[in-house]
Design goal:
25% of the residues lie in helices and 28% in strands. It is an alpha+beta fold. InterPro entries: aa-tRNA-synth_II/BPL/LPL (IPR045864), Biotin_CoA_COase_ligase (IPR004408), BPL_C (IPR003142), BPL_LPL_catalytic (IPR004143).
Length: 259
């Protein structure tokens, strides 16, 4: 039986505009890390301000933290959260078949997007900066095709792909426990072990993909993720390390991740 991790707070809300917005309001008022989970969001959003569909029964939560590292280290927690999501799915279903991690912050199931992550640095009115790790999971329903960005990967749900039904409250316990273990590894051993574990679960490693940075489309072979978390592509003009981009697979499949 999975138990709630020691040292992490837990707040379950019936409805909120968005859990990341609630984290912003709470920043500076908590004494330790806390999970904020909502059964319904009225104004959920994803990366680059995109809308984020959150049907009833799906999972929406934010982990509010007060880490003391510099910004480049904080950003690496997208990999920590990705691995924790992967672990939570394995705990929920008892299998790893069909699960993969898509750079920079998506979890795939049978080739479709089942979960996304949105990291935001928060500035409370008083005190030091906080980190919000927003997570959305299609537990029971996936958004319709017209609700996602053109060219993005098809949305899928855990229920439709595996037949496993999990409530948001149950999934929160699984995820919180998994995250606490991965966070402890990250703090103790640094990014190296997290990077190795992430690469072992990476989608399309070794394949030709396209990274859209906003100013250019860069196509090349997905070689690795470097020690800074950058996507490394082998292109016709040489190896390129890309810190931020939307990734597209051949045959379609963009990154519309967020929360």
């Amino acid at each position: 039986m999975t138990h709630w991790p020691e040292g992490y707070g837990r707040r379950m809300l019936t409805e909120v505009d968005s859990t990341n917005a609630e984290a912003q309001r709470l920043a500076g008022t908590l004494s330790g890390p806390a999970w904020i989970c909502a059964l319904s969001q009225t104004a959920a959003r994803g990366r680059r301000g995109r809308p984020w569909a959150s049907p009833a029964g799906n999972f929406a939560a934010t982990l509010l933290m007060m880490p003391r590292e510099e910004a480049r280290v904080l950003a690496l927690r997208s990999f920590v959260a990705s691995l924790a999501l992967y672990d939570a799915f394995v705990a929920a279903t008892g299998r790893v078949d069909g699960l993969a991690l898509k750079w920079p912050n998506d979890v795939l199931l049978n080739g479709g997007k089942v979960a996304g992550i949105l990291l935001e640095s928060l500035e409370p009115r008083r005190g030091s900066a906080h980190l919000a790790i927003g997570i959305g999971v299609n537990l029971v329903a996936a958004p319709a095709a017209e609700q996602v960005e053109p060219g993005a990967l098809r949305p899928v749900s855990l229920l439709s792909e595996t037949g496993v039904g999990v409530t948001p409250d149950e999934f929160l316990t699984l995820l919180a426990a998994a995250y606490a273990l991965r966070e402890a590894s990250f703090v103790t051993y640094g990014f190296a072990a997290i990077r190795e574990a992430w690469l072992a679960r990476a989608a399309r490693l070794g394949d030709i993909i396209t990274a859209r940075t906003g100013t250019a489309d860069i196509t090349g072979t997905f070689e690795t993720v470097d020690q800074a978390g950058n996507l490394v592509l082998k292109t016709a003009s040489g190896r390129q390390a890309i810190p931020a981009a939307d990734v597209f697979f051949r045959g379609g499949g963009g990154d519309a991740s967020g929360h």
